[in-house]
Design goal:
Length: 297
């Protein structure tokens, strides 16, 4: 139990929640982007350089990390307007690799040797930011904008016929995901005080995508999948080296028995219907009385 409550575990869980939320909204809107490592790297290097070289306070650098992560989605957004499906996933993955290649040769941020010397960020702040991001995501998911994003991801043609601006919704979802990924990168850089290009490889996308698929494509599912699958290897230290195989076995079991994830989209709908106040009974309206004057006349 002490291991589960240690500061490194808290920080890892909170960062994984942020990363899982960063994948949620693009996927819900129908944008299959695998550029998560690139967004995270942009946020990590931007925030780390601002505190290490420019002398910015940590809170300002984290805001800049989220902003840089959101801005880095603009090229991905242009791709989303032109290609879709597996071609978009391959293109965004290639773009993320280009970002990592850039940082591998960019000397002001340490190139392949990495960047070090960032001030330490207390894990409690990382957990608080992850909780705030989760609360915001849950609120947004239930708003009209969130419903519009879900409609655009379900059938963009029908959504456009109903007056929804699908490209704007997809760009907004990508920007939100980039902001969450950039914030996660900034928290990662300031917790470990060291970052290198190999911290943002494709394996990170695979793990986070596994968390999201197993948890479910909802904010609650993203949080549950991140927390559960991050903590499972912590129960037995020997399981940590087998974590990828363990995730694969869990994913196969979920695909067979719970394909919608641990927390599917409509899991809480019956609870919300019960909590909703019952509508007032309708009163019967008596038909108007028939005038007898005409008959008498």
């Amino acid at each position: 139990m002490e291991t589960l409550m240690s500061e490194p575990v808290q920080a890892i869980v909170a960062i994984n929640v942020l990363l899982c939320l960063s994948l949620l909204f693009p996927f819900v809107t129908g944008v299959w982007s695998l550029g998560l490592p690139g967004f995270m790297a942009v946020g990590a290097y931007a925030g780390g350089w601002l505190t290490q070289s420019a002398g910015w306070p940590v809170w300002a650098a984290l805001i800049a990390s989220a902003a840089c992560g959101a801005l880095s989605t603009l090229p991905f957004g242009l791709l989303a307007l032109r290609i879709r499906g597996i071609y978009l996933a391959i293109a965004t993955l290639a773009a993320a690799e280009l970002i990592l290649l850039f940082f591998s040769h960019f000397k002001p941020t340490g190139a392949v040797m990495g960047l070090t010397g960032m001030p330490f960020l207390d894990p409690r702040w990382i957990v608080a930011m992850a909780a705030a991001a989760f609360a915001f995501s849950g609120w947004l998911y239930c708003t009209r904008l969130g419903k519009a994003m879900q409609a655009a991801g379900s059938d963009p043609v029908v959504a456009a016929c109903h007056g929804l601006n699908v490209p704007v919704l997809q760009l907004s979802a990508l920007a939100l995901g980039g902001a969450f990924a950039g914030l996660a990168g900034g928290c990662f850089a300031h917790f470990y005080s060291f970052i290198a290009p190999n911290n943002f490889g494709f394996h990170r996308t695979v793990d986070i995508l596994m968390f999201l698929v197993i948890g479910g494509f909802t904010p609650v599912g993203a949080a549950v999948g991140s927390v559960v699958l991050t903590l499972v290897p912590q129960f037995v230290s020997e399981l940590e080296r087998w974590a990828p195989a363990l995730y694969g076995a869990i994913a196969l079991a979920m695909a067979a028995f719970m394909p919608a994830g641990l927390v599917p989209k409509n899991r809480f709908a019956p609870i919300f219907r019960r909590l909703r106040p019952a509508p007032a009974p309708r009163t019967a309206i008596a038909p108007p009385a028939v005038r007898q004057g005409g008959a008498d006349a």
